[in-house]
Specification:
147 residues, alpha/beta, 4-stranded mixed β-sheet, two-stranded antiparallel sheet, 3 helices, 18% helix, globular
Length: 147
């Protein structure tokens, strides 16, 4: 589960269809923090129409109330500079920050062919219940920040 916001950079002529190449950047994660996005080849590649910026919820909001927009800020600025469309994705599930569990989010144990594994805030495909998703306030702030 994640939040995805897509916004076109600058004034653009509407396309007849949503086709084209979208560059999928590596996610900004606590164990693999963001790097200088300006060095990515997608910005100057004329065949790339857009870029998907992904970040783990635990990286964006490591503590309740503390939100770090720096990765998205840099990516959105580069998209505007190079006239690329941009998508924002905040991944939850296994990327859920630790601070949510004492507030009532559930930890699940999933048994795989490799044995039991604790997976926080995630259920197998086909499950109806979703636990530990980004709170509405984070989603609202993300949309407000980049709309």
């Amino acid at each position: 589960m994640g939040l995805c916001v897509v916004h076109g950079a600058g004034a653009q002529t509407p396309k007849a269809s949503a086709s084209g190449i979208i560059y999928l950047l590596k996610a900004d994660r606590p164990d693999f923090p963001s790097r200088d996005l300006a060095k990515e080849p997608c910005w100057t590649n004329p065949y790339v129409q857009g870029v998907l910026l992904r970040a783990f919820w635990s990286k964006v909001q490591p503590r309740e109330g503390a939100i770090d927009w720096s990765f998205f800020d840099q990516g959105v600025a580069l998209a505007a500079k190079y006239n690329k469309k941009v998508g924002l994705l905040i991944t939850a599930g296994v990327a859920t920050p630790q601070w949510v569990y004492p507030t009532g989010a559930h930890e699940l144990t999933v048994t795989t062919e490799r044995g039991p594994r604790i997976v926080k805030g995630w259920l197998p495909v086909g499950s109806v219940l979703m636990t530990a998703s980004p709170p509405a306030v984070l989603m609202t702030e993300t949309v407000s920040e980049y709309s």
